Amino acid sequence: MICAACYGHADIVYFLHKYRTEGCTSEAIDYAAEHGHLDIIRFLHTHRREGCTYAAMNVAAKNGHLDVVDFLHRNRAEGCSEDAMDFAALNNHMDVLEYLHTERTEGCTIYAMNNAAARGHIDAVRFLDKHRTEGCTTYAMDAAAKNGHLNVVEYLHTHRTEGCTSKALEDATRHGHLDIVKFLVAHRKEGDVKHCKSIAEQLGQYAILKFLCTVDASV
């Protein structure tokens, strides 16, 4: 029954419930929630007693299944953990993120904004900045710079105080993100231009090397 619930085979779940005695465990709803099988979740909730765990809402949030999150919130008592909102931000499920913020009390952690920034999810970053208090760490701007998300780097620089480390400029150089290198050099003080020139030369990032050479010819 667990496997049938996981893979969305509602007819098999109904059959096993009616004609077999082995039953299932809380994993049935948990797995059904992960894959968004709301019809099966409703059936198990109504006809079975095994229930689920807080992982059900967590993984439903992770995969963007708002209807499942809403059903579990309204009909089950297991709730979720901070992972639910963290996962929603990670995968840019804005409807789920906003729902959890409004309807639940578990909140999130710094990993929500950190990972949203790393993946370039500017809408999630903005929402968390405006509506939550958990904040982020220097990892947010460092990772956004590394992955080429200039709009996120600009937003964090303007609206947050955590800043970045030298890794932001170094990794932007390594990965050839000239626009981000220019922004960081112009607006941030972290990072060693001389060291980044060496990185650019070693990795053949010649456009960045040319730019860095114009920043300070003596470096």
UniProtKB/TrEMBL annotation:
InterPro entries (alphabetical): Ankyrin_rpt, Ankyrin_rpt-contain_sf, SecEffector_AnkRepeat
Domain of life: Eukaryota
Signal peptide extent: none
Pfam families the record matches: Ank_2, Ank_4
Entry-linked PANTHER family: ANKYRIN REPEAT-CONTAINING PROTEIN
Record's protein name: Uncharacterized protein
Species assigned in the record: Aphanomyces invadans
